From TrEMBL:
This is Bifunctional protein FolD. It catalyses: (6R)-5,10-methylene-5,6,7,8-tetrahydrofolate + NADP(+) = (6R)-5,10-methenyltetrahydrofolate + NADPH; (6R)-5,10-methenyltetrahydrofolate + H2O = (6R)-10-formyltetrahydrofolate + H(+). Belongs to the tetrahydrofolate dehydrogenase/cyclohydrolase family. Residues 66-180 form the Tetrahydrofolate dehydrogenase/cyclohydrolase catalytic domain. Catalyzes the oxidation of 5,10-methylenetetrahydrofolate to 5,10-methenyltetrahydrofolate and then the hydrolysis of 5,10-methenyltetrahydrofolate to 10-formyltetrahydrofolate. CDD domains: NAD_bind_m-THF_DH_Cyclohyd (cd01080). SUPFAM superfamilies: Aminoacid dehydrogenase-like, N-terminal domain (SSF53223), NAD(P)-binding Rossmann-fold domains (SSF51735). Pfam families: THF_DHG_CYH, THF_DHG_CYH_C. One of its GO terms (biological process) is tetrahydrofolate interconversion. Residues 199-341 form the Tetrahydrofolate dehydrogenase/cyclohydrolase NAD(P)-binding domain. Residues 1-59, 340-359 are annotated as: Disordered. The lineage of its organism: Bacteria, Bacillati, Actinomycetota, Actinomycetes, Geodermatophilales. Pathway: One-carbon metabolism; tetrahydrofolate interconversion.
Length: 359
C-alpha cells in the first residue's frame, strides 16, 4: 500500500489522502474515462475539492436510495395500532424530553420528536432549562420524570452544556424509563445480550437494512466512528448471534480507513466528518449509510460524499435516511416501555383467579 504518513502533535500517524500512487485513484481514473460522456449536473461537484478524491458525477448505474422517511412512516403505522391497544386498557404512553440550553439543532430535534408523538398518539412531556442551569437543577428534573407515572420514558437531549457531566446526568435516569438506551445498565444489558432498551440510531440502522433487504448475517461491515450513541452500540448489535455480521470498527487513530471501507459490503459512516467517505472508498455495489451530521450555513452535510451514489448499490443521503428512523425508534422504545409497565401493573392471571376464588 502506498500512502504518505505524517505525525500530528500527539505523535499519532496521519494518512494524507489521496496518496499519490494509491491504487484507488486508478479505479477513480478508470471510472472517470468510462463515464466521460455522461457527466451529471454541475451542482453535484460543489464539494468535490481535490479532483482526485472524488469520482465525477455518474448519472448511470446510480445507487438505489434507501428511504428512511418511508420506513419510519410504516413503523409509525405499526405503533399507532399498539398505542390504540394500550388506550383500550386505559394506558397512554408518554415521552418526556429534557432540553438544556437553546442550541438551534437540539431545539429542532426535540420539536420533531414531539411532532412524531402527536402523530402516533403518545403524550408529550416537555422540560426546558436555560443553558446556565446547574447540574443539580437538571438532576432534579430527571428525578421528577423518574417519578411521573404519566411518563413512560424520557430522554435528555445531548449535548449538554460543557459545565455538566453527561455521564452523571444519564446515570440518574431510571433504567426502566431510559427511552434512549444510553444508561449504563441498558448498555450493559446490550453487551450481555439481555433484554433492555437499545439505543435508537443503531436500532434504526438495523431496521432500515432489514426493510431494504440488505443481507446482514455473514456480511462484512465497516463502521466508521465508535461513539456511544451510534458506532459502539451498533458494533455490539451487529455481532450478536441473531445478526452475526463481521464488523470492523474505525476511529480517529485508524491508519487507513479507506482500506477497511473498500472491502466492506456495508459501510456505516458515523464520525461527524462532512463528506468523509469518498466514492473511491466504496466497493462497487456496496450499501453505504450516512449517519454523521455536520451543520453548516449551507445546510446539513453528511459523512458520505454525494458522488458515492455513482458507486454504491444502495445508500442513504445525509437526510431522509437514518434520521427519521432514529426518531421512529425512540417512539418504539417508549411504546415498548409503556407496554412493559402495563404488563407489570396488571394483576397476574393466577393472582386474579385466586382473588375470584376467594370471593
Ligand atoms: N442521523 C442521526 O439520526 C444521528 C446522527 N448522529 C450523528 O452521528 C455522528 C456520531 O455520533 P456519536 O456516536 O455521538 O459521535 P461521537 O462524537 O461520540 O464519536 C465520533 C466517533 O467518530 C470517530 N471519528 C472522528 N473523526 C474521524 C475520522 N476522521 N475518521 C474515523 N473516525 C473518526 C471518533 O473517533 P475516536 O473514538 O478516535 O475519537 C469517534 O469514535 C455525529 O455527527 C452525530 O451528530 C447521532 C445520532 C443520531
Ligand atoms: N439524547 C439524545 N438522543 C438522540 O438520539 C440524539 C441526541 N441526544 N442528540 C443529537 C442526535 C442527533 N439526532 C438526530 C435525530 C433525528 C434526525 C433527523 O430526523 N433528521 C432529519 C433532518 C432534520 C433537519 O432537517 O433538521 C433527516 O435526516 O431527514 C437527525 C439527528 C438524535 N440525536
Amino acid at each position: 500500500m502506498h500512502r504518505s504518513l505524517e505525525s500530528d502533535a500527539a505523535g499519532r500517524s496521519i494518512v494524507q489522502f489521496p496518496p499519490a500512487r494509491d491504487p484507488a485513484t486508478v479505479v477513480a481514473g478508470r471510472r472517470r474515462s468510462a463515464t466521460a460522456a455522461s457527466a451529471g449536473p454541475a451542482g453535484r461537484r460543489e464539494h468535490a475539492g481535490d479532483e482526485r478524491q472524488t469520482n465525477p458525477p455518474m448519472t448511470t448505474c446510480a445507487a438505489t436510495l434507501i428511504d428512511g422517511n418511508l420506513a419510519a412512516e410504516e413503523i409509525k403505522e405499526e405503533l399507532r395500532a399498539r398505542v390504540e391497544r394500550l388506550a383500550a386498557s386505559g394506558v397512554r404512553p408518554g415521552l418526556g424530553t429534557i432540553l438544556v440550553g437553546d442550541d438551534p439543532g437540539s431545539r429542532s430535534y426535540v420539536r420533531g420528536k414531539h411532532r412524531d408523538c402527536a402523530d402516533v398518539g403518545i403524550e408529550s412531556i416537555r422540560r426546558e432549562l436555560p443553558a446556565d442551569s446547574t447540574q443539580k437543577e437538571v438532576l432534579r428534573v430527571v428525578r421528577e420524570l423518574n417519578e411521573d407515572p404519566a411518563c413512560s420514558g424520557f430522554i435528555v437531549q445531548l449535548p449538554l452544556p460543557p459545565h455538566m457531566d453527561m455521564r452523571v446526568v444519564l446515570q440518574a435516569i431510571d433504567p426502566d424509563k431510559d427511552a434512549d438506551g444510553l444508561h449504563p445498565v441498558n448498555l450493559g444489558r446490550l453487551v450481555l445480550d439481555q433484554p433492555g432498551t437499545v439505543p435508537c440510531t443503531p436500532q434504526g440502522i438495523l431496521e432500515l437494512l432489514r426493510r431494504n433487504e440488505v443481507p446482514i448475517t455473514g456480511a462484512q461491515f465497516c463502521v466508521i466512528g465508535c461513539g456511544t450513541t451510534v458506532g459502539r452500540p451498533l458494533g455490539l448489535m451487529l455481532t450478536r448471534v441473531t445478526e452475526h455480521a463481521t464488523v470492523t470498527m474505525c476511529h480517529e487513530a485508524t491508519v487507513d480507513v479507506a482500506a477497511h471501507t473498500r472491502v466492506a459490503d456495508v459501510v456505516i459512516a458515523a464520525a461527524g466528518v462532512a463528506h468523509l467517505v469518498k466514492p473511491y472508498w466504496v466497493k462497487p455495489g456496496a450499501t453505504v449509510l450516512s449517519v454523521g451530521i455536520t451543520r453548516t450555513v449551507e445546510g446539513i452535510l453528511g459523512d458520505v460524499h454525494p458522488d458515492v451514489e455513482g458507486v454504491a448499490g444502495k445508500w442513504t443521503r445525509a437526510t431522509g435516511g437514518v434520521g427519521p428512523m432514529t426518531r421512529a425508534m425512540l417512539l418504539r422504545n417508549v411504546v415498548d416501555l409503556a407496554e412493559r409497565r402495563a404488563e407489570q401493573d396488571r394483576p397476574s392471571r393466577s393472582h386474579a383467579d385466586a382473588v375470584e376464588h376467594a370471593g
